[in-house]
Amino acid sequence: MANSVPASLKPFNTFGVEATCNELISFNDEPSIQSWLKAEKPALDSLFILGGGSNLLLLGHIPLIFLQANIQGIEYLEQNNGKDEVWVKVGAGVNWHQLVLDTLDKGYSGLENLSLIPGNVGAAPIQNIGAYGVELQERFINLQAIELATGHIQEFSAEDCQFGYRDSIFKKELKGRFVITQVTLRLNKNLQPHIEYGPLKQELEGETSITAKKVSDAVIAIRQSKLPDPAQLGNAGSFFKNPIVTEEQYQMLLDAFPELVAYSVGSGHYKIAAGWLIEKAGLKGYRQGDAGVHEKQALVLVNYGHASGQDILQVAGQVRDKVLELFGVKLEPEVWIIGEQQIFLS
Ligand SMILES: Cc1cc2nc3c(=O)[nH]c(=O)nc-3n(C[C@H](O)[C@H](O)[C@H](O)COP(=O)(O)OP(=O)(O)OC[C@H]3O[C@@H](n4cnc5c(N)ncnc54)[C@H](O)[C@@H]3O)c2cc1C
User: Which residues does the UniProt record annotate as the domain FAD-binding PCMH-type (predicted)?
Assistant: First the structure.
């Protein structure tokens, strides 16, 4: 059943900024979403889908209705296909890290590198969450979503989702058109470890028998040492995406900055570490009032206490401008910036 709650969004965003919306409605199952859509017939541009609020920068009052698919449930589906796999079908409202822990408790692997990513399962496909050498798409089977315009349930395969680096069709042509209600992922009974990523390899050095739980513990230890905990210091993780540049741009940057941190992503393109650019621009630890760049991780913008969304946006603009001026590289936000309408830093 639909459940209307007060519209303060401060507890619903990990930046911890004060923000409000017209209404916040949480749903526990698919039929209640469908009934509400049928009864209200809302305009699509009056709605915003909220997950755990860990990838959002909210700017003051947002004149929209926020909908939350708080659908619970983790169901393991045995596959009799002769392969070493089990599928897990998960409600959109399940906390992502709780899902990872549940799969590990059951003895399954596949999600361990994605431990401790904040947010809910329903948001994970939106930007194809990724960390420590693994992206959601490698584990993705399908998702179920309700089309907001019609209330119809639709299934999306991995191909339908058009996953890319921090990207999917839900950030492009289907932006704001579907609410994801269930996600099905592929797990393994036997571990196929992905521990090539430098710091992870280092953390696991000396381990004789690698298990999924040990990989998860190592990922958690690294994340806790590097990233601020939103419960202590408001933030939304990486604020900017790592920019992808052409080989020509990469060579020019490398000539000017031989210590540049970048790696090839194939087809003549290179991904540059945005954190390195920001640090090199002298902005690591930069602070303006209560908004700033984290002192250990330059890619993370933080709220030291009472910053508003606008204060953080201003710092983000300064970071973007300085990086553009020094390196000729334009940083794009990874977080969703939501005010009277969705805003891009351009
Ligand atoms: C400390 C920290 C570390 C982080 N580390 C990582 C990391 O390593 N890798 C990574 O990829 N991300 C990382 N993030 C970003 C964030 O955790 C992910 O993007 C996460 O998937 C967001 O989930 P959420 O439920 O909080 O979504 P929200 O922030 O609430 O929403 C994000 C987007 O998803 C949409 N959305 C949410 N739920 C649904 C739904 N059910 N149906 C349709 N649309 C929906 C929203 O409309 C919005 O556009 C980090 C964030 C923090 C704070």
Answer: 17-190
Q: Which CATH number fits domain 234-343: 3.30.1300.10, 3.90.78.10, 3.40.50.11030, 3.30.499.10?
A: 3.90.78.10
Ligand 1 atom with the smallest distance to the CA of 126 is: 34
> Ligand 1: distance of its center to the CA of 118 in Å?
7
pLDDT tens profile 202-244: 999 999 899 999 999 999 999 999 999 999 999 999 999 999 9
Residue 166 Cα: closest atom of ligand 1: 11
Q: Which fold has domain 3-69?
A: 3.30.43
**Atom 43 of ligand 1 has which residue's CA nearest to it?**
179
Catalytic, 157? Answer no
- Nearest residue CA, atom 31 of ligand 1? 51
| Cα-trace Rg, the chain | 20
Q: Is the pLDDT of residue 80 over 50?
A: yes
Top CATH class, 74-226:
alpha beta
